Amino acid sequence: xxxxxxxxxxSDTVGWRFDNTFSRLPEDLFTPVDPAPVPGARVSILNxxxxxxxxxxxxxxAPDAAAALFAGQALPVGSRPIAQAYAGHQFGGFTMLGDGxxxxxxxxxxxxxxxxDIQFKGSGRTRFSRGGDGKAAIGPMLREYVISEAMAALGxxxxxxxxxxxxGERVYRETALKGxxxxxxxxxxxxxxxxxxxxxxxxxxxxxxxxYAINRHYPELAEAPQKHxxxxxxxxxxxxxxxxxWQHVGFIHGVMNTDNMAISGETIDYGPxxxxxxxxxxxxxSSIDRGGRYAYGNQPSITQWNLARFAETLxxxxxxxxxxxxxxxxxxxxxxxxxxxxxxxxxxRRKLGLQIGEPEDTELIQALxxxxxxxxxxxxxxxxxxxxxxxxxxxxxxxxxxxxxxxRWRERIGREQQPEADALMRSVNPAVIPxxxxxxxxxxxxxxxxxxxxxxxxxxxxxxxxxxxxxxxQYRDPPLDDFGYRTFCGT
Length: 491
Hints:
Elements: H1 8-11, E1 18-19, E2 30-32, E3 42-46, H2 48-53, H3 63-70, E4 82-84, E5 87-90, E6 93-96, E7 102-109, E8 115-121, E9 136-137, H4 138-154, E10 160-172, E11 176-186, H5 192-199, H6 203-217, H7 227-249, E12 251-252, E13 274-275, H8 299-318, H9 322-333, H10 336-351, H11 361-375, H12 379-386, H13 400-414, H14 421-428, H15 436-449, H16 453-462
Antiparallel strand pairs: 1-7, 2-4, 3-10, 5-6, 7-8, 8-11, 9-11, 10-11, 12-13
Helix pairs in contact: 4-15, 4-16, 5-6, 5-8, 6-8, 7-8, 7-9, 7-10, 8-9, 11-13, 15-16
């Protein structure tokens, strides 16, 4: 059954206000492209809450109009679809890339004046598809929807998901799967990889991109005497903060290539990501990360490695003397570990209810993590249990090593005389995260039975992760056995 024909005017009743700032950059940074026709678009899920934040009224659309809009069959007035060019270091090796299955419609202006990218993912071939079909399957698109919205609810900077529609066609990976398109919302899709691409094109393209990124994401630096150096410093700082937040909730990105590091400081690309259950710094879920390059414990050092690649692209803008440029960038890059440690330690103190720093806090925190690793304790539940007025009765908490640590911690927290320490802890230690087995159950129901009820129940649980809701207790439990669990890229 073909997708219903919907007028452009009907799709515009939702309140779009498009601009096309990226497509005014040098033309070697993008290529015009239209979304591919699809035989039978159908809405799987719409994010009305996010739409409201963006000043959009999706309720004004009939189901067939919504399906046509988010399948790219009825483009809003003012949109100018393009595929962005970028490169990237993937598992350490440099590759020329680009949007092989994504199309940027343009930037929508929100009621508070922000510009946000509106991008289709899975909407057909582009010049950068490199032999791929440019399509996406329903499972990975719903997975990105779930995890990105969970990250937003946790308060972690992230791209967002506005809609998922099925296309009425099959895409072929290892088997035939239902085709789907995700509509992604982002501060922008400018990446470290975008700069790697621009630096290999021309000095003019690089400078135009850098000035664009500054004006869009760091406008306070536009008139700074050394604005490109300060831009680099600001990106380093945002990444240090972002990765610390990942570590605080046990999030493992899974594919931290330079093309998956957004200049805005948002988490981007939810391919083989997952949340850790039992604490282990060596945890890897991605099926393609056989060497553990992007393991949980490696995420800070890999971020610094990616930022070094970013610095290399900016050198011509930092100083005409190459040696001076390298020295300037190196000073900023070498500050990353201290910046990360500061953000990480501050967040871990809050997780333990500590509001005043003391020199031995790092050792106290590490002692807990060491015990958790040895005992196989659940990362999320351990911190949530500690935030309760009374520690739950469980065998693991009767362990002598833990009891010794617990006494030290209670003595330490008592010195602060902060009666609201428990409340502080509950505000930063989630009760609910996207447990891998719960996510898989929701995706299986959607893929195999076209049943989205399991997905909606999970999303409801994830929408308020810091609240203690008895009816959501099932979402707190880790799987009985997480051994061998693997995630996949979806391409």
